[in-house]
């Protein structure tokens, strides 16, 4: 598995854990970093994982607003928890991270949905992120 793919998967796991715990993503990130430093069996939290989590945290309010606005028939609270975390990460990468091509962001998000969520989730994730991609930079504030 490519390094960025692993980093993205770990970032998704941190966002998901924060959502489940009702904690700030930066607090969960700090917990993961501390745990990796104190337990040699745990892999270190990589730079790209930190960049993704911190980037999402910086734009979390706007990302949730966009996901609520552009998800047809779904409120943020009604979305499966896994999908919500994947969408949050994907929205951050599409709109604020210029390092990864949009097609790769969409593909990686769909792969996460296939691995961790329901049978309907990949198309839902692809459709909503595709809508955000099409609207692009005009969504940033």
Structural class: mainly alpha
Distance between the termini: 34 Å
Mean pLDDT: 95
β-sheet strand percentage: under 5%
Describe the structure.
This protein is mainly alpha-helical and about 140 residues long. Helix content is about 75%, strand content about 0%. The chain is built from six helices and no strands. It has helices at about 5-20, 25-40, 45-70, 80-95, 100-115, 120-135. The longest helix has 24 residues, at about 45-70.
Brief write-up:
The protein has 141 residues and is mainly α. The chain contains six helices and no strands.
Chart the SSEs and their pairings.
Blueprint: H1 3-21, H2 25-38, H3 47-70, H4 81-96, H5 102-116, H6 121-135
Helix pairs in contact: 1-2, 1-3, 1-4, 3-4, 4-5, 4-6, 5-6
Structural descriptors:
141 residues; mainly alpha; 6 helices; 0% strand
């Amino acid at each position: 598995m490519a390094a960025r793919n692993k980093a993205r998967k770990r970032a998704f796991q941190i966002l998901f854990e924060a959502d489940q715990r009702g904690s700030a993503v930066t607090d969960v990130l700090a917990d993961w970093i501390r745990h990796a430093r104190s337990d040699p069996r745990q892999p270190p939290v990589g730079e790209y994982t930190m960049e993704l989590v911190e980037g999402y945290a910086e734009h979390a309010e706007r990302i949730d607003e966009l996901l609520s606005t552009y998800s047809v028939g779904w409120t943020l609270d009604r979305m499966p928890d896994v999908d919500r975390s994947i969408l949050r990460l994907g929205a951050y990468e599409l709109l604020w991270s210029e390092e990864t091509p949009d097609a790769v962001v969409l593909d990686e998000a769909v792969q996460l949905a296939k691995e961790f969520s329901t049978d309907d989730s990949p198309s839902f994730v692809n459709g909503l992120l595709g809508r955000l991609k099409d609207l692009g930079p005009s969504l940033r504030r």
